[in-house]
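Input chain follows. Return structure tokens only.
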Amino acid sequence: VQKKPDKFNEELLSDGTEENDTGFWKSLTRGFTGGGKAEEPKQEKDDVINIFSVASGHLYERFLRIMMLSVLKNTKTPVKFWFLKNYLSPAFKEFIPHMAKQYGFQYELVQYKWPRWLHQQTEKQRIIWGYKILFLDVLFPLAVDKILFVDADQ
């Protein structure tokens, strides 16, 4: 794709009219670039990076702490971590408020009971996969638009 000399300031996917800014192409470019119009103020809920992670055991909780510090070190945006409460150790649940206060992040523990109508899994790893995949729509509040899943040992 090459722009014509008299069209350098126009968007490639725009037809040149302002009325098309809410169409399919504009929504597609917003999806790829992550932004809207330059003059639109960002909403406050978009100013937080939501990260969901699951730790099942003391080793993965240690990896989780390392991952959290790495995220905090590499971003200036406020971060909110979401953890599956069902598999966290009591020591981690006791430690996380102190860590949040020291490093200045938010956190929330979410849990969901396996539904009786769904075949109960007996293997721990399959249960965790169920929580990571099947129940994402009921684990988080509706106000959370986007959430990143980061594996503890990533």
